[in-house]
Amino acid sequence: MNFIRRKSLIFGSAVILLFVFFQRNGFAGEDKKVKELQRGKDIYHERCAVCHGVDGNAMLPNAPSFAKGERLDKTDKELLQTIRHGKDVMPAWKETLTEKEMQVVLKYARVVAGDNVFQEKCLKCHGGAFPKLRTDIPDTKALTNFEGQLDICRSCEIEREMTKEELIEVIRYLRTLGK
Ligand code: HEC
Ligand code: HEC
User: Fewest C-beta atoms under 10 Å: which of 100, 109, 120, 173?
Assistant: First the structure.
């Protein structure tokens, strides 16, 4: 009896710990865009990371590193064409993934750099929910020519430790999440 109770206690604690872990590390919240990008991230980890790297730094020579923006200057139309039909050692995905799944995984590949920045610089304080950018933060195109302090987070000093590229990537990421 005691033995069984102890086992269920251990099991119960494990479930709670896992829950807390996913709350902190996964995408919290019910937003549609957040869920969609999480789906893209899951597919990316399952199907693409072996070659393109979990954090978007390629494991396979010749595979583009999305974290460095490689190939991302191409349009969605061009990139989806390769994802559907494959190229060289890059497999074709059209038999395995739906059109929608290919779109969301590409969406994630486009912001994997920003996800990395968020994990490294923001998650420790913003683990519960994604922060909403102020409306006066310029769009990512205008940011390329922007000089000076953005004050992206008025409640912390993190911007001082960030390069302009990191700022642009994290802003693109948060905007993709509808933030
Ligand atoms: C077996 C290794 C491998 C896997 C798995 C893989 N890729 Fe690739 N991928 C490559 C290589 C190598 C290239 C470069 C192909 C070339 O241009 O010759 C590439 C290129 C690409 C490109 C650039 C296409 C272009 O037109 O320039 C995209 C986008 C891409 N992969 C997305 C994905 C996605 C999304 C997945 C998962 C669903 C995936 N890849 C899985 C190896 C892989
Ligand atoms: C040391 C803790 C801390 C870190 C690190 C941090 N934030 Fe914040 N941030 C806060 C707090 C506290 C608030 C105010 C409460 C809230 O909105 O969650 C806030 C608010 C925000 C807001 C709401 C609008 C505003 O300007 O206040 C945005 C946007 C934001 N943070 C973005 C970021 C981004 C992006 C990063 C990572 C690059 C980051 N924060 C890192 C603590 C932090």
Answer: 100
Model's pTM, two decimal places? 0.87
Q: Name the domain count of the chain.
A: 1
What CATH number is attached to the domain comprising 129? 1.10.760.10
Which residue, judged by its Cα, is nearest atom 8 of ligand 1? Answer: 90
On whether residue 14 sits in a domain, the answer given is no
Q: Which residues line ligand 2 (CB under 6 A)?
A: 121-122, 124-126, 131-134, 152-156, 158, 170
Q: Which residues of the chain have pLDDT under 70?
A: 1-30
* Tokens, residue 121: 């610089």
Residues with CB under 6 A from ligand 1: 47-48, 50-52, 60, 62-64, 71, 74, 78-79, 82-83, 87-91, 93, 105-106, 109
Residue 39 has a pLDDT of 98
Q: What pLDDT digit, counting tens, does each position of 20-53 carry?
A: 555 544 544 468 999 999 999 999 999 999 999 9
The pLDDT value recorded for residue 111 is 98
Distances (CA, A) of 11 to 1, 18, 24, 25, 37: 15, 11, 20, 21, 31
Instruction: Determine the structural domain holding residue 143 and report its residue range.
Output: 30-176
Flag whether 96 is in a domain: yes
